[in-house]
Amino acid sequence: MTKYGKEVFNLFIMSFQEDYYNKERVNIMSVFSVAKHDVWEKFNEEVTGKFIEERLTGNISIEVVHGPWHIILDTDEAERHEEGYYSTRFRAPIVNPNAFRFKVHKEGFLSRVGHLVGARDIKTGDADFDDAFVIKCDQIEKAIELFSNQVVKEGMLKHKNIHFEIKDSEGNFGPKFSDNEDELCLEINGIITDIKMLEDLFHLFANTLDTMVEKELILPKEPTTQI
Fold first, then answer.
1. What is the distance between the alpha carbons of residues 174 and 176, in angstroms, rounded to a whole number?
2. Strands, DSSP E only, in the chain?
3. DSSP 3-state of 63
4. Which end of the chain is less packed: N or C, by CB atoms within 10 Å?
5. What does DSSP say about strands 102-106 and 69-76: parallel, antiparallel, or unpaired?
């Protein structure tokens, strides 16, 4: 085979492999989509939520009313689709006049943590919890009070791969937040198709909202911001 022939042959093989990979990836994601639809529909019935399926994209989200909050369950897959990155997230706008913000991630997990101005690493005094998570917050006593709550703490220890935070923006393409309003966001890698895990994460999220009101960290008011 000539040098030119070898180059053509190699290009053909590379093209075939790329096409095969893309088809396999589509097949795998199709399986995930079917599983996600069935499990999320069942979860929606359990929490008496609003099941939303976009006609054009097929994207699914669930809206659950809990007290004054509208909790949104969806997957974040559009931004990093080319990288093959997917995550499941729970989000809710909150009324936060004291600007109480935190970031929590798994110990040793450095990506996507970002920078929180004035924040310090927090230790709660619970060795198991402190070994599992890195907590950053600029209001130390309030953070310790929140993450020392037994219900919140146990919920987080069940699923240590979470990224949990209160943030004041979703970036340039996200909704504009009203004054004194932020967003509580819980995110975990992957498309969750385990209904028990969805239940656990939802209860963690809802219990955190309730605990923050109990500790007077946020107000029990319906926000005007919509996501």
1. 7
2. 50-53, 60-66, 69-76, 87-95, 102-106, 120-122, 133-137, 162-167, 181-189
3. strand
4. N
5. unpaired
